[in-house]
TrEMBL record:
Cofactor: Mn(2+)
Protein name: Phosphopentomutase
Gene (UniProt): deoB
EC number assigned by the record: 5.4.2.7
Entry's localization field: Cytoplasm
Chain positions recorded as Mn(2+) 1 binding sites: 11, 325-326
Keywords in alphabetical order: Cytoplasm, Isomerase, Manganese, Metal-binding
C-alpha cells in the first residue's frame, strides 16, 4: 500500500497511433516521436524512467534497468478530448461520443446567448483560438460582440478582450452558456472562457485567466470513491474543472506547466493520505494545437529537468504515476487532438523491481489500481495493475 499516489497527466503527450486511430482520422500520428524528430532534445530523466523502452523514440534510449515500471495504455472511450481522457483515467467509459459542431452552433442557441447576455456574436465556427482573435478581435473592440468558436472537441469557447468585456462579466456569460448547453439539444462538453489582451491583431495575446466549465462526470469516479472513503483528493491545475470539483477535496490553481510543478512540490510537502492529481496543459494548449514542435520539445525538456526535484520530495510510501490523456501531434495536419496510446511510467519513493508491465486496454486500469491500493471497493471496467507492481517488491 502507498499512502500517497501522485498522478501527473502530461496533457496530449501521446506515444503513437492507437489501433483505432484511423476511425478518428489520425492514422500514423505519433506526438512524441514526431516532435522529437522535428526538434531533437535530450530527456535524460524520462529516459531513465523507461520512456524510450515504451516505443523507439529519437534520441531517447532504453536503459537496461529502468527507474520506473513502464508501459502504454489505450483509450477505450469513443472520444479523444481532455474530459473523456481524464474521466477514463478516473474509471469511466464514455461510450457515446460527445456532440461536436463542425458547422458552428445552431442559430437557436446563438439567439438564446444573445438574449441572455445582451451582446452580439461573431465567429461561430471551428477555429484555432489564436487565429480567431486576430480575425475578430478588432471588430470586437468596436462592437463588444462575443467571439464564439469551437473545434473538433466538444467545446464552446468564448474569446473576449479583457478591456472590452471585463473578466467577471465573461465568466458570468460562460456560466449562463454552461447552463444552456446542458440541454441535450445543444449539449456541449465544455464551455471555455478565453480572455485576451492587446489593442490590435498584431498584439492580441491570450491571458492565463482561461476558465473551463465542464459537465459533471457521467458516473461515479475513483475520485468520488476516494472521497467517500475519507481519503484526500488534491486537484492541481485544470483537474478541478475537468471533474467540476466532483470527488475533489482540495484544489490548487496553476498558471502554466512550471507553476504546476511548483504547486505539486508544495503539495508533496504536505501530509495527506490519498491522491494528488496534476494536469500540465501547456503541451497541448501552447504547442500541440499550435502545431509547434519546437515549443513542444522545449516544454518536454523543461518538464524533464524538474523530475529530480519531484523525486527528492517523494516519501517511502509514495507512488508517482506519469501518463497522458490523448495525443496532439504537432506535425500532423489540422490543429486537433490525435487518437494515440499514452505512456505510462510508475515510480515509487522506495526501491522496486522496475520492469515493463502489461499494456493497458483502457486508461481505467489506473482507477482500478488506485482503488486497490487504498483498499476501496470501486466498480470500473479497468483492471488493477497493483499486484503486478508489488508482486516481488524488493
Ligand atoms: O485553439 P484553442 O483555442 O487553443 O482551442 C483548443 O483548446 C481547446 C480546449 O483545450 C481544444 O478543444 C482546442 O480547440
Ligand atoms: Mn487534454
Ligand atoms: Mn486540447
Amino acid at each position: 500500500m502507498f499512502n500517497r499516489i501522485h498522478l501527473i497527466v502530461l496533457d496530449s503527450v501521446g506515444i503513437g497511433a492507437a489501433p483505432d486511430a484511423e476511425e478518428f482520422g489520425d492514422a500514423g500520428t505519433h506526438t512524441l516521436k514526431h516532435t522529437l524528430n522535428a526538434f531533437p532534445v535530450k530527456l535524460p530523466n524520462l529516459e531513465s524512467l523507461g520512456l524510450g523502452c515504451i516505443d523507439t523514440l529519437p534520441g531517447i534510449g532504453c536503459p537496461e534497468t529502468t527507474e520506473a515500471f513502464y508501459s502504454k495504455m489505450q483509450e477505450v472511450s469513443r472520444g479523444k478530448d481532455t474530459m473523456t481522457g481524464h474521466w477514463e483515467i478516473a474509471g469511466l467509459n464514455i461510450t457515446e461520443p460527445f456532440k461536436v459542431y463542425p458547422d458552428g452552433f445552431p442559430e437557436e442557441l446563438l439567439d438564446k446567448i444573445k438574449k441572455a447576455t445582451g451582446r452580439g456574436i461573431v465567429g461561430n465556427k471551428p477555429a484555432s483560438g489564436t487565429e480567431i482573435i486576430k480575425e475578430y478581435g478588432e471588430e470586437q473592440m468596436k462592437t463588444g460582440d462575443l467571439i464564439v468558436y469551437t473545434s473538433n472537441d466538444p467545446v464552446l469557447q468564448i474569446a473576449a478582450n479583457e478591456d472590452v468585456i471585463p473578466l467577471e462579466e465573461l465568466y458570468e456569460i460562460c456560466e449562463k452558456v454552461r447552463e444552456m448547453t446542458k440541454d441535450p439539444e445543444f449539449l456541449v462538453g465544455r464551455v471555455i472562457a478565453r480572455p485576451f489582451t492587446g489593442s490590435s491583431k498584431e498584439t492580441f495575446t491570450r491571458t492565463e485567466n482561461r476558465h473551463d466549465y465542464a459537465l459533471e462526470p457521467f458516473g461515479k469516479t475513483v475520485l468520488n470513491a476516494l472521497e467517500d472513503n475519507g481519503n484526500d483528493v488534491v486537484a492541481i491545475g485544470k483537474i478541478n474543472d475537468i471533474f467540476t470539483g466532483s470527488g475533489v477535496t482540495d484544489s490548487v490553481r496553476t498558471k502554466n506547466n512550471m507553476d504546476g510543478v511548483d504547486k505539486l512540490l508544495d503539495v508533496l510537502d504536505t501530509d495527506f493520505n490519498g491522491l494528488s492529481f496534476l494536469n500540465l496543459v501547456d503541451f497541448d494548449a501552447m504547442f500541440g494545437h499550435r502545431r509547434d514542435p519546437e515549443g513542444y520539445s522545449k516544454a518536454l525538456e523543461a518538464f524533464d529537468e524538474r523530475l529530480p526535484e519531484i523525486y527528492s520530495k517523494l516519501r517511502e510510501d509514495d507512488l508517482l504515476i506519469i501518463t497522458a490523456d490523448h495525443g496532439n501531434d504537432p506535425t500532423y495536419k489540422g490543429t486537433d487532438h490525435t487518437r494515440e496510446y499514452v505512456p505510462l511510467l510508475i515510480k515509487a519513493g522506495r526501491d522496486m523491481n522496475y520492469k515493463q508491465i502489461r499494456q493497458s486496454n483502457t486508461f481505467a486500469d489506473l482507477a482500478a489500481t488506485i482503488a486497490e491500493n487504498f483498499n476501496i471497493n470501486y466498480e470500473t471496467h479497468g483492471d488493477s495493475l497493483y499486484q503486478e507492481l508489488t508482486a516481488d517488491e524488493k
